[in-house]
Amino acid sequence: MNTSDVCDALLVEHLPVPRPSLRVAVVTETYPPEVNGVAVTLQQLVQRLQAGNHQIQLIRPRQPLTDKDRDACDDELLVRGLEIPRYPQLRLGMPIKRALLAQWSRQRPDLVHVATEGPLGWSAVQAARKLRLPLSTDFRTNFHAYSQHYGIGWLRKPIAAYLRKFHNLADCTMVPSSDLLHDLSAQGFERLMVVARGVDTARFSPVHRSEALRAQWGAAPDQPVLLSVGRLAREKNLDLLTRSWNAMRAVRPDLKLVVVGDGPSRNALAQACPEALMVGAQSGDDLARHYASADLFVFPSVTETYGNVTPEALASGLAVLAFDYAAAAELIRHGDNGLLAPRGDETAFLQNAVDLISNPGLVEHLRERGRATTLTQDWGQIARQVEGVWHQLLAVRQPVVQA
């Protein structure tokens, strides 16, 4: 066999067989320029799927101040939305089951993917079942866990029952971590599959560290900066953030706290931490510079489905402390590339915070190792995983009882 024959054999046997492109209807109540984890990660996924030659129909609420001259996707269906109480910057999509039935009957998608569980998502689930379309969903937000933080804990069980019914109508539900899969499975959720979340390691990178930005914060080159990123709301456990900062300042009185984010608890946090720099919500390159220009990152929330800020902070080269669940449990090895406290153990969390600020050598080690961890979490790889789930679903789909 000559060299040409060998090359031909290698090409035939070892090159992956291209998967056919899919037409997928993606339904969501939130999408950029809205700033939240669901919106940002879904946009990353949609963009990578489009780059992979899949046809995406994006169905979402119209954002009146931003959608006049903007297309988020080549094929969009914009629907009426309703502001969410306490979160006026977010909207719920109104139900449009009849419109979806008409449109999907005219141009049938290969698959429907529903990312959110609001009225728009529910109508999409109902329309997909009516037309017997393959259906996948995402479990992205712990609404039932949030209820206890807003004085409506009595709604926890009804909300959980609704979410279970919603997702059990799907052929599969994607969840971002194995611990969440186990939690939901114990609650009666069916056909669950772990699909990781990605992180943009080019955008979130130590190369974006800005001494000019640090100077605006009043931070000297050798002065440590503690960063917090996320929605400022009760369910984010902001009291523990305050206590962690105070405990760390007992060791390093010059430690600065920079808070990125906005929400209904902003004023309360500003009053509890009057010396903190409250810089509001940031996005895009500005957000990346804020991450990279800090040194330490603590994430005290215990209500995340994943917690996108954890991989973003790791990718940006920060020393990260979080509770041992969701993204942190998936990505962090305690003492190697970050620090973990048992979920809900605030005493251990505070001790870890003190240990972190007390050991500059550990901080440098965690910063380097944390960045390296995220290099395997590229969004292109995640999109290929989702694509594989969908092709598997189409190949072996079992009928689901129509609602």
Can you tell me about this structure?
- The protein contains 16 helices and 15 strands.
- With 403 residues, it is an alpha/beta fold.
- It folds into two domains: 21-198 and 379-396, Rossmann fold; 206-374, Rossmann fold (3-Layer(aba) Sandwich).
- The strands form three sheets. Strands 3-2-1-6-7-8-9 form a seven-stranded parallel β-sheet, with helices on both faces.
- It is elongated, with a radius of gyration of 22 Å.
- Mean pLDDT is 88; it is low at 1-17 and 144-152.
CATH class of the largest domain: Alpha Beta
Low-pLDDT sequence parts = 1-17, 144-152
What is the name of the CATH superfamily of the largest domain?
A: Glycogen Phosphorylase B
Structural class: alpha/beta
Looking at the structure, the CATH topology of the largest domain is: Rossmann fold
Tell me, briefly, the overall form.
elongated
Which tags fit this structure?
single chain, 403 residues, alpha/beta, Rossmann fold, 2 domains, seven-stranded parallel beta sheet, six-stranded parallel beta sheet, 17% strand, disordered N terminus
Write the layout of secondary structure elements.
Blueprint: H1 3-14, E1 23-27, H2 37-51, E2 55-61, E3 75-79, E4 81-84, E5 87-93, H3 97-106, E6 111-114, H4 119-130, E7 135-138, H5 143-146, H6 156-168, E8 172-175, H7 178-186, E9 192-194, H8 211-217, E10 225-229, H9 238-249, E11 256-260, H10 266-272, E12 277-280, H11 284-292, E13 296-299, H12 309-315, E14 319-323, H13 326-331, E15 339-341, H14 346-358, H15 360-374, H16 379-396
Parallel strand pairs: 1-2, 1-6, 2-3, 6-7, 7-8, 8-9, 10-11, 10-13, 11-12, 13-14, 14-15
Antiparallel strand pairs: 4-5
